[in-house]
Specification:
By secondary structure, this protein is of the alpha/beta class. It is built from 12 helices and 5 strands. It has a 5-stranded parallel β-sheet with strand order 2-1-3-4-5, sandwiched between helices. Strand 3, helix 3 and strand 4 form a beta-alpha-beta unit. Bound molecules: iron/sulfur cluster (SF4) (2 copies).
C-alpha cells in the first residue's frame, strides 16, 4: 500500500507585533478544524509548543523588523519557506511602531531606559518586503480572517489569492453605507485605503483611518486638497496618515509633504 502524501507544512512567524494577526488565524474556529485536516501546522508557537523543523510550504510572517537580530532572522525564515506571505500592517508597512522612523530613536531610548546601552534596536521599523522577497502581502490591522483563509488556500493550491485592491469606498457602496465625508462632513481615508474590512468604520458612522494601507494608485493629493478646503488643518492631515501604515510609501510621501 502506498504511503499517504504528506500534508503541506504551514509555519507562522512573529516579529515586532501585537500578535493580533496570528490571533485572526485562531479566530477562524470552524474553518480551523477543516484547515488542520488539509495542512500540517508545523510551527505556530501561539497555538502549540510543538515545533517541527522546516522547510515549510507556506510561511505567514507577522510583525516588522526593528532589531538587528530580527533583520538576520527573517532571512532564515525566507530560506526555509517555499512561499512567504507577510500579514498585517506591521509586516507589510512597518506598523504603528514605524512612527519611530520620523523621530530620533536614540533620543527615546535615552529617555525611557535606565540603561540604554542594553537596548539593541534599529532606528527604523520596516516591512518584511524591505528585507526579503515576499510572495504576497495581506493588509489590515488586524488582517481579515476570510482573506487570510483565502490566501492560505490559494498558496497551497499554487494559485494567486483573490484579494481586491480597490478602495474602501467601493465596500461602502456595496453595503449601502452613506458616505461619512458627504453626509457627516467627517474626514475619512476610505477613498485612498485598500478594501478588505467590509468598510467597518463608516458603517459605524466614523471615518476610515487607513488600517488596510493605501489602495492601488491612491489619489492622496486630491483627497488632501478636498479635506483642507473644508477646514482640515495640515497637522490633522499628517496625523491621519501617520497611524498604522505611516511607513507605507504613498502615505509616507504625502505626510512628509506637510512637514
Ligand atoms: S498589524 Fe495590527 S493586529 Fe496585526 S500584529 Fe500588527 S498591530 Fe497587531
Ligand atoms: S474602515 Fe478603514 S480603518 Fe476601519 S477597519 Fe476598514 S480599513 Fe481599517
Amino acid at each position: 500500500m502506498m504511503a499517504p502524501k504528506p500534508k503541506p507544512k504551514l509555519a507562522v512567524w512573529k516579529f515586532a507585533s501585537c500578535d493580533g494577526c496570528q490571533l485572526s488565524l485562531l479566530d477562524c474556529e470552524d474553518e480551523l478544524l477543516a484547515l488542520a485536516g488539509e495542512i500540517d501546522i508545523a510551527n505556530f508557537p501561539e497555538a502549540s509548543r510543538e515545533v517541527k523543523p522546516g522547510p515549510y510550504d507556506l510561511s505567514l510572517v507577522e510583525g516588522s523588523i526593528t532589531t538587528p537580530r530580527d533583520r538576520d532572522r527573517v532571512h532564515e525564515v525566507r530560506r526555509q519557506s517555499k512561499y512567504l506571505v507577510s500579514i498585517g500592517a506591521c509586516a507589510t508597512a512597518g506598523g504603528i511602531q514605524s512612527l519611530r522612523n520620523f523621530k530620533d530613536v536614540k533620543g527615546f531610548v535615552d529617555v525611557v531606559y535606565a540603561h540604554p546601552d542594553y537596548i539593541e534596536t534599529l532606528a527604523t521599523s520596516t516591512a518584511i518586503s524591505d528585507h526579503v522577497k515576499v510572495d504576497f502581502e495581506l493588509r489590515g490591522c488586524p488582517v481579515d480572517k476570510s482573506q487570510l483563509l483565502e490566501v492560505i488556500i490559494a498558496f497551497l493550491r499554487d494559485r494567486r489569492p483573490n484579494i481586491p485592491n480597490y478602495s474602501v469606498c467601493v465596500e461602502c457602496k456595496q453595503r449601502g453605507t452613506p458616505c461619512v465625508i458627504v453626509v457627516r462632513g467627517e474626514p475619512c481615508l476610505g477613498p485612498v485605503t485598500q478594501a478588505g474590512c467590509g468598510a467597518i468604520c463608516p458603517t459605524y458612522h466614523r471615518g476610515c483611518y487607513g488600517c488596510f494601507g493605501p489602495a492601488e494608485t491612491p489619489n492622496l493629493a486630491s483627497l488632501s486638497s478636498w479635506l483642507k478646503e473644508r477646514g482640515m488643518a495640515r497637522d490633522d492631515w499628517t496625523r491621519l496618515l501617520r497611524t498604522y501604515n505611516a511607513n507605507a510609501p504613498a502615505f509616507k510621501s504625502e505626510s512628509s509633504k506637510c512637514e
